[in-house]
Structures are given as C-alpha cells and as structure tokens.
Design goal:
The chain is mainly alpha-helical. The protein contains 17 helices and no strands. The chain has one domain: Up-down Bundle (Growth Hormone, Chain: A), CATH 1.20.1250. It is globular.
Length: 408
C-alpha cells in the first residue's frame, strides 16, 4: 500500500486505535522539545548572563547524550518491552524538563537538558516501533503517521517556545513537562504491552551494523548533513536577532515546510527521480541556501531559514528510508547505529557555529562551513551511489515489524 495514495492511505491513517493516537500525540510533544528553545535562546542568554556559545550547549548536551543513548535504547527495549521503555523515557523528560525551568545557571540548564536528551532518546527510538505494532493499515500508514507527528512537533515547538517564552524563558520548560505528563498518562491508559523482540539486542550490535558499506555511507553522509541542519536550528536565532514571537513565527513556517516536504513532496519526487538523485540534489540546494542565509540581507536570512525547512524535510525522509532499508541488519539495530553516528554532528554544530563566529569575527563563516558540510554529504552520496542503490530501487519497501526512526 502506498500511504500517499489518497484512496488507499487516508482511511487507514485516520482510523487508528487509541493506543496509536496516544503514542503519536506524545511523539508530537517529544519532537516539539527539539525546537522549543529556538526562539528563546537569546532570552535565555540574557536571563542567565551567558554567551551564545554557552547557551548553544543546550543542544550539544541534549544530542551528545542522545547519540550515546542510541546504543542503549535497543538493549533496554528488547529486555523490558516497548511500553515500559516509552514510559521510562517520558518520565525522564517530565522530570528533567521541569528541572530545566528551575535552573539558575547555564551549567545547570545544560546538565538538565542532557537528562532530557536521554529520556527523549528512549521515547523517540521506541515510538515508531510501537506505532507500527499497534497501527491499523500496515506499516506504510503507520510511518506516514509518525512522519506527520515529527513535522507537527518540529513546527509547533518554536511556536510554543515563543508564546510561553515571551512571558518568561522558564515557562516553555514547565509547559513541556506538563504536556509530557499528559502523554505519560495517555500511554499508561491506552497502550497495552507490545510483544518483545525475538532476540535481545546487545550494546555493540548497532556499531557492528555499521560494518555494512551502504549503512556506513548513509550514516557518514547524514553526519555532514546534520551538521548543516543544526547550524540552522541552533545558530540562526542569534543571527535573526528577533523577538521570541517573530523568531517563533519564522521557525513555525520552517517547520511547516519541513512537514509538507517530508510527508507529501518527498515520496512524489522519489517516485519520479529516484531516492539518491533527490537526496544529492537537496543537499546541494541546502548548501546554496546556507550561503544566501549567511551573506544576504536580514530579509534574505529570514527567507533562507524558512526555505531550508523544505530541503531538510526532503533529506529527513530519504535518510530515514536509507537507514531502514539499505542493510541486512535488523531495522532497530541498523537505525540505532546510523543515529549513533549522525547525532554527534547535531551535538557539534550548535557549539561550533558560534565559536567559529567568535574565532573569525564573521557571521558568514559558520554558514560557509555548514554549506561545505552539506556538499560533503552530497559528494558521499555520489561517490558511494552503488552501495546505496539497493534501497533506492524499492524505497517504499519499509518493513512492518519493529523499525526504529532515523529522523529524530
């Protein structure tokens, strides 16, 4: 079934058990947490008397822990089951999001964001598997629902951050804790325990899976892409230098484009041009957009930020399918290995981008470095095309059992 066929996909997408909607709803809030701090980064810096590079560590600690947690999530969920793993992740997010709102120093806030990253990793890495296991209409409809939750969360996170952050920079953290607590209750009530995988996952299985040439190539390309992605997410708010409301509006529009291109546009382009052509072309266009973002006027920077959401949406979808389908490793293991590699770039970019600006005394330099990273990602796709074509020939053939998300 093609989930993007209006006749085939829509009914099964909407007619889902309560357990699926509870998990998808909590997933929206989990993804909101990624972009939540975007509009309030300058406000946090002012409130805690911190520099942009110090405040950007909110992303670095979050994603560094997320990267290492990818080696743990499969180990945990294959032993205690998907439902308990989801609830453990949600509980950690509730605790550490609330603690983040009580921070008196940037060091405390960075530390609490690390704990938040661990909880989010446990939840996000298990949620797609649970949705697929409980959804009606097969894996294609379930993955479409998951991608929709991703897009909605990425779009609404900056908006929630702007609305609450305009009152006080602490409120978005308390708001997230409250929403995740609601998600915890919903999953407790509506989600029954999922069957455990037949085989337990070891801590090193995801690293061993990277021995496959195609998966290693996808992970390497995604590493450089993620550096560009998170330069936009973490550094642009300082360049735009807008009020939380205006910055939130920019990143809401960015998130809407990300969602539309990820869920609706990407599969159509893949069908017409092929996955690897779409991926390579999108990475090159993202690089060009980053140069415009860095060297253009303030209006050009606003437009460039919003437009980057389209290319990021395309890349997220294709990289997800590559990670799930290019190797013969079990999907949860392959996805964990892939995410382990790429999240290191998400941890590095938020810290490096403002540092590069400090070292070079140039606002353009961080965007040039990010553009070069996107081009390196495109070159890897071109050079390693043969090892990646196995998946490209049947990019919609995503398995129905126990996959893990690669997008977030």
């Amino acid at each position: 079934m093609d989930p993007f066929d209006e006749d085939a996909g829509t009914p099964s997408l909407l007619k889902q058990p309560k357990a699926v909607w509870a998990t998808a709803g909590a997933a929206v809030v989990a993804f909101m947490g990624i972009g939540l701090v975007d509009p309030i980064l300058p406000s946090i810096a002012k409130g805690l008397d911190a520099t942009p590079s110090q405040v950007s560590l909110l992303f670095t600690s979050y994603f560094l822990i997320t990267a290492f947690a990818m080696l743990v999530t499969g180990f945990v969920s294959s032993r205690i089951g998907g439902r308990k793993t989801l609830l453990a992740g949600l509980a950690l997010v509730v605790v550490f999001a609330a603690l983040s709102g009580t921070s008196d120093t940037v060091g405390e806030l960075v530390g609490f964001r690390a704990g938040w990253g661990l909880g989010n990793a446990l939840f996000v890495s298990t949620s797609l598997a649970v949705i697929v296991g409980a959804a009606a209409g097969g894996s294609a409809a379930a993955i479409l629902l998951y991608e929709s939750a991703l897009g909605l969360g990425m779009a609404c996170g900056p908006l929630l951050g702007a609305v609450l952050g305009d009152l006080n920079w602490r409120y978005p953290f308390f708001g997230t804790a409250a929403l995740m607590a609601i998600g915890f209750i919903a999953i407790t009530v509506f989600l029954k325990e999922q069957p455990k995988p037949a085989a337990r996952t070891s801590l090193l299985d995801p690293v061993k899976a990277l021995g496959h040439g195609g998966l290693a190539s996808a992970a390497a390309s995604a590493f450089f892409y993620n550096y560009a992605f998170f330069t936009v997410l973490a550094f642009t708010p300082f360049v735009l230098d807008m009020s939380p409301y205006r910055s939130g509006g920019v990143f809401f529009a960015w998130g809407v484009l990300l969602a539309v291109f990820s869920v609706l546009v990407a599969p159509r382009l893949q069908k017409r041009f092929g996955s690897l052509t779409v991926l390579g072309g999108s990475l090159v266009l993202l690089a060009a957009d980053l140069v415009v973002l860095g060297y253009g006027s303030h209006t050009a920077a606003v437009v460039g930020t919003i437009v980057s959401g389209a290319f990021i949406g395309l890349n997220n979808t294709v990289f997800t399918e590559l990670a799930l389908g290019v190797s013969d490793a079990p999907r949860p293991v392959a996805s964990a290995g892939y995410n382990f590699v790429r999240w290191f770039a998400a941890a590095a970019a938020p810290w490096l981008a403002p540092k590069i600006e400090e070292w070079t005394d140039s606002l353009e330099a961080p965007f040039v470095v990010a553009a070069v990273a996107a081009l390196v990602g495109a070159v890897i796709v071109g050079v390693r095309r043969k090892s990646l074509t196995t998946e490209a020939a049947h990019h919609h053939a995503v398995p129905a059992q126990d996959p893990l998300p690669a997008t977030a």
